[in-house]
Amino acid sequence: MSNTTKPLTPGLLNPKALLLIGVIALLAGYGLDYFQAQRGRIRLETGKENTLVTSQDTTGGKDSTATGPGFAITLDSLHIRPHTTAYQIKLMKRDTATFDHASMGNNISSTLVGLYPLEPMKNTVVDNTEYRFRLKEFYPNFEFAYEYPADRDSIQPKAPGITLELKTKEGTPIVTLHTKLPNKNKLADLVSLGASLAFYWEIPMDSVRAMVADRTEHGNRIVFSGADRRIFFIVNDSISEQPLTEKSFYKIPGQDSAGFTIIYCFPDMALLKAVPSTRGTELLNPVAHVEIWKEGQGAQDAFVYPESGPRKGGEFEIPGSGYLIGLGIDQEKEVKYCDCQVSIRESGNEKVEIVTMTAGKSANYKGYSLRPVDCRMGNPGKVILEIQKKPGRILMISGVLLAVFAILLMILRRKM
Fold first, then answer.
1. Spatial distance between the Cα atoms of 370 and 364, rounded to a whole number of angstroms
2. pLDDT tens by residue, 261-303
3. pLDDT confidence band for 29 (50 / 70 / 90)
4. Rounded to an integer, what distance in angstroms lies between the CA atom of residue 210 and that of residue 226?
5. Phi-psi region of 320 (alpha: psi -120 to 50; beta: other; left: phi over 0)
6. Which of 7, 72, 293, 388 has the highest count of CB atoms within 10 angstroms of its CB?
7. pLDDT at residue 96, rounded to an integer
8. 34 phi/psi in degrees, rounded to 5
9. For the chain, what is the radius of gyration of the CA atoms?
10. What residue segments make up the domains of the chain, in order of their start?
11. d(CA 405, CA 188)
12. pTM of this prediction exceeds 0.85
């Protein structure tokens, strides 16, 4: 008597049948998505309600048709976790009829053409045109550094002046007082320094005493005398004197921390050069120095910076091309640190549902997937949400799983 192995019962475990069902489910899901999928983007500002409008999926080349799922969204809160912001060069094409993908709230409506990493001296073609650009330098905390010839003692005092870095509660502005134009040698106390400033190349001591006696002038005054390198502090009708030394900090009498640092005292303003520089590596005032040229012609320098709070982004329009170069945040990396909460209200219903998206991950609401693609802190905070609905997604996933199971089952039966 021989032992025989009875084959497994066909039917629901028939690999070919399972594979056929899986393929049918996959095709059905794809077809459902092709005809019924919806997707769109909505721009939100903190505290403002906006109505969602989506479009039929145009993956297959169909014309988009605006539809409304019937609910409105309000951005309740936005928080971006601490991280190091990544920036990239953005290339745009002016188009007044197109949604501005690159910058929310930017005055220039444009189509985003491409995003490029900050790779210095790498030549990039501007959208198949004759124009080229490359990043020359990236400054994390941009400022101008000032240079002056070392042999200044031999320079005639044609337009003397002084460059100072002020230290105030509002910040550390750099100012230059000079005698090239009338009244440009003086600065009233408009920056909360605690004293007005005046520069003279030569000023007799009698003139300084006359300032003290002049009752039409009020408040503390600081007078610089360039030729003999002296500083006069006029405080409460008394005069004190200190030597004028470059790169030294001087505290304003009677102030907690306000003062100034003398960068240069020079005989001719024409020889003072401002050179792009950075103060440290912290991303406080990022600026990109970009070279742009047309084939066969010389290069132009452009300094571009990103949108920051109320400050609009500084973009450069390539002359005669219709293209713009800018500096933007790499939102693909930025959204990973974005936490936001929205309220969703359906049309004709006052009931509100709360949806939270953490670390840039998507959330679901009644079959719709909500995912932040652009997050910007500010007052107000701004978020762009990508909304999509794919009714065939479950069928497609089920079809793939059935097909994989059927193939594994076929392999197993062949080994038996």
1. 6
2. 999 999 999 999 989 999 889 998 999 999 999 999 999 999 9
3. low
4. 19
5. left
6. 388
7. 54
8. -60, -40
9. 33
10. 38-81+334-389, 87-141+279-329, 143-276
11. 81
12. no
